[in-house]
Design goal:
Chain lengths: 229, 394
């Protein structure tokens, strides 16, 4: 049994009027260090809300969230920023690269809000780019890359700070299946380096590449293949 | 602990501006034009005033005593004793007298009708006049002792212009009444005594022998110790006409300069107001593009929040961008304003005088405009929820 890095107990999220949608309802989920987890489910099942809550981008309306043992519901907004800067890494379907920056500087941006000096940021960014297999693209502009390369840059940016948890929101959603498989393999491989990977996907192949699958329906967990809890 | 180094914050702001070059350049141009207007208005005003202010400093201790005009418009001469009496007042440094020679026309030749005076007249003057009025001959020299015995004249600046005398290389004669006089010199303009500018000056000796003018002077110029000017002015009437017979006017010609400077100041205020309006418009322009920028960059804002940026880091980024934009515009505007001032001063023949306060005010106003313009967009960017910011991008 590994140590838990993410612990959700009784987590619910109800959006305020006018929608008053209950996106999550009574989620209990424990994810250990080094796990790879795919969160699946139909559109509107609550996957994105769950990922946002895991990423401290959104606060639950009920229940508690612990990241590396610390209850984040008690933290202020700036303190949540600190948690994201130091413990979490994000990968998005739309990549969110800064087009006017070089590949290296895009990756270095991942360390910007930790107060790491520029030179050290770039050194670390170069290492991260090597890890994702893009060492030869360091000087390129983000706009010159293919979709798969762009997502690799985004992954490098997310892991440059060696976060405990990497959260990915449909990371292969904008890629063709061959490129998507490469990205999936890359993400799955990160867990060997002790990084916990949690991703959202519609794609069964991507989900199958993760060791654990959590299936949501109407804001509840209806199937969980791992479950050390 | 999430933190953003100051150097990184500035790098972010410059990067943001570089990513939108045309838009940034146009916004900075708006600020530049407004600041250039402010600097040029202050600079040009100062350059034209510099001349007057110098004169004011030099001429502040000048006083004139003139005979009051009688009911028929003829000047009543001052007593002959007036000038030596005034010279005896202790704080008086220099004194000189002039006398109007009435009904004598100033002409280039007999072909010109005598009634066409061009506003010029003949004045008898003393050799002490250039010293008392701080004026130098532009051409030739002033009347000296020998001029008492020969028909020699020195022209005021305007008189020389009206008569078309631009050079004394060849002997030049003009007609005073029916008598030819040789032009010995031309004086520089005398702002405090415009009557000298329009005069043909001759010696008192010639005024007496040629035109029979032997009465006392019509006007006396004197300079007093600068801190005793008021005290001297107070006793001038009694000194000039001790018996109280006759009326005299005591004036301080520098008051005229003060009035002129005040008149220019009114225009400066008006143009500065217009410059301020231009700056306001430019500031609104910056605010406008910053609001658009925040809307366009919601994805970037969401990403930065996900990477650990605090609200204030996001606010600082946008605030710095707008302030930097305005600062670039401000520096450019100061350059343009200084250039415009230099060109205007050159054209107007004035010294280039740019008050340091104009430069500081121009840059300060630009900074303030940029900061105020960026405030609202920055707050909007900071308040954006990270989840909404990330979801807003397709």
């Amino acid at each position: 049994m590994t140590t838990a890095v993410l612990e959700l107990s009784g987590v619910g999220k109800t959006y305020p009027a006018p929608s008053t949608v209950t996106a999550l309802d009574g989620i209990d989920l424990v994810i250990g260090a080094g796990e790879t987890v795919a969160i699946t489910g139909a559109s509107g099942a609550g996957k994105s809300t769950l990922l946002s809550i895991l990423g401290t981008l959104e606060r639950p309306t009920r229940g508690t969230v612990r990241i590396a043992g610390a209850d984040v519901s008690a933290l202020s907004d700036p303190e949540l920023s600190d948690v994201r800067a130091t413990r979490l890494g994000f990968v998005f379907q739309q990549f969110f690269l800064l087009e006017h920056l070089s590949v290296l500087d895009n990756v270095a941006t991942g360390l910007l809000y930790r107060g790491v000096p520029a030179r050290a940021r770039r050194e670390r960014a170069a290492e991260a780019l090597y890890e994702v297999g893009l060492a030869d693209r360091i000087g390129h502009r983000a706009g010159q890359l293919s979709g798969g390369e762009r997502q690799r840059v985004a992954i490098a940016r997310a892991i440059a700070g060696r976060p405990a948890v990497l959260l990915a929101d449909e990371p292969t959603g904008n890629l063709d299946s061959a490129t998507g498989a490469e990205i999936t393999a890359l993400l799955a491989g990160l867990a060997d380096g002790d990084t916990t990977v949690v991703l959202i996907t519609h794609n069964a192949d991507v989900a199958a590449a993760m060791r654990r699958q959590v299936h949501l329906s109407d804001g509840r967990i209806v199937r969980d293949t791992g479950g050390e809890s | 602990m999430a933190r953003l180094r100051p150097a990184d914050a500035i790098r972010l702001a410059t990067g943001g501006l570089r990513a939108r070059r045309v838009r940034s350049a146009l916004s900075a141009l708006g600020i530049a034009i407004a600041v250039a207007a402010v600097v040029a208005v202050l600079g040009i005003a100062r350059s034209t005033q510099a001349d007057l202010l110098t004169q004011l400093g030099e001429q502040g201790n000048l006083l004139t005593v003139a005979s009051a005009e009688s009911v028929n418009g003829r000047g009543v001469p001052l007593p002959l004793s007036a000038e030596p009496m005034i010279a005896r007042i202790p704080p008086v440094r220099t004194v000189t007298a002039v006398a109007t020679v009435e009904n004598v026309s100033v002409r280039r030749s007999r072909a010109i009708p005598a009634v066409q005076t061009g506003g010029m007249n003949v004045l008898a003057a003393e050799p002490s006049l250039p010293a008392a009025l701080s004026v130098q001959p532009l051409l030739g020299r002033f009347l000296d002792g020998t001029a008492e015995h020969y028909p020699v004249t020195v022209l005021g600046f305007e008189a020389a212009r009206i008569l078309g005398i631009g050079s004394l290389a060849a002997p030049t004669q003009i007609l005073l009444g029916e008598h030819w006089f040789t032009v010995a010199g031309v004086l520089a303009p005398v702002a405090v005594a415009p009557e000298i500018d329009l005069a043909a000056l001759i010696t008192f000796g010639q005024a007496g022998t040629v035109f029979g003018r032997t009465a006392g002077p019509s006007r006396i110029y004197l300079r007093a110790d600068p801190d005793q000017v008021a005290a001297v002015a107070a006793v001038l009437t009694a000194t000039t006409v001790p018996d109280g017979a006759g009326d005299v006017q005591v004036r301080r010609p520098s008051d005229l300069l003060v009035a002129r400077i005040a008149a220019k100041g009114a225009f400066v205020g008006l143009f500065l107001g217009l410059g301020g309006v231009a700056l306001l418009i430019a500031g609104v322009g910056i605010a406008n593009i910053m609001v658009i920028s925040v809307l366009e960059r919601r994805g970037e804002i969401g990403l930065r929040r996900a990477l650990g940026a605090r609200r204030r880091h996001v606010a600082a980024q946008f605030l710095l961008e707008s302030t930097l934009l305005a600062t670039i515009g401000g520096v450019l505007g100061i350059g343009l304003g200084v250039l415009a001032t230099a060109v205007a001063a050159r054209l107007g023949g004035n010294p280039v005088a740019i008050p340091p306060v104009a430069l500081a005010a121009g840059l300060g106003a630009a900074l303030l405009a940029g900061a105020l313009a960026g405030l609202y967009p920055a707050i909007r960017a900071a308040r954006l929820s990270p989840v909404e910011a990330l979801r807003s991008v397709g």
